[in-house]
């Protein structure tokens, strides 16, 4: 049996665990805006050792800018200036039900 393959696999497992732990500690100090990403980023470190940390540092720790949304053609909509949004009890915002009629079902 190839002993070197066993050594390489253990190195990969250890690097994956260390990367996941490093990301987990950093996520604990700097929580993500989307709560699921607090779990997703450490898991990424498990199957992408070192590369997972580089992706996390580039994508998750980047400061959001206005250009991030407009770069792919999406317009940033201010709900206060858009007639499609309405204020709900408690200050929450939602889409008016009249906008949803006929969107998924045909009459």
Describe the fold and architecture.
With 107 residues, the chain is mainly α. The protein is 52% helix and 6% strand. The protein has one domain (3-96). The chain has helices at 3-29, 37-47, 51-60, 67-70, 97-100; strands spanning 85-87, 93-95. It has a two-stranded antiparallel ribbon with strand order 1-2. β1 (85-87) and β2 (93-95) form a beta hairpin. The N and C termini lie far apart (67 Å). The relative contact order is 0.09. The mean pLDDT is 76.
Write out key terms for the chains shown.
107 residues; 6% strand; two-stranded antiparallel ribbon; mainly alpha; 2 strands; 5 helices; 52% helix
The N- to C-terminal Cα distance equals 67 Å
For the residues shown, what is the average pLDDT? 76
How many structural domains?
1
Task: Give the number of DSSP strands.
Answer: 2
Query: Would you identify the regions where 5 or more consecutive residues have pLDDT less than 50?
Result: none
Using the alpha-carbon principal axes, give the shape: elongated
Indicate the structural class.
mainly alpha
Strands side by side in the biggest sheet: 1-2
- Mind telling me the C-alpha Rg? 22 Å
Helix content, binned percent: 40-55%
**What is the beta-strand fraction?**
5-15%
**Counting H and I runs of at least 4 residues, what is the number of helices?**
5
| Biggest beta-sheet profile | 2 strands, antiparallel
């Amino acid at each position: 049996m190839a002993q070197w393959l066993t050594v390489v696999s253990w190195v990969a497992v250890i690097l994956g665990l260390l990367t996941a732990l490093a990301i987990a500690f950093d996520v604990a100090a700097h929580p993500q805006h989307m709560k699921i990403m607090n779990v997703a980023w450490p898991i990424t470190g498990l199957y992408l050792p070192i590369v997972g940390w580089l992706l996390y540092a580039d994508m998750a720790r980047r400061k959001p800018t206005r250009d991030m949304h407009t770069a792919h053609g999406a317009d940033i909509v201010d709900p206060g200036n858009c007639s499609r949004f309405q204020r709900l009890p408690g200050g929450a915002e939602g889409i008016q039900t009249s906008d949803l009629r006929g969107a998924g079902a045909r009459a």
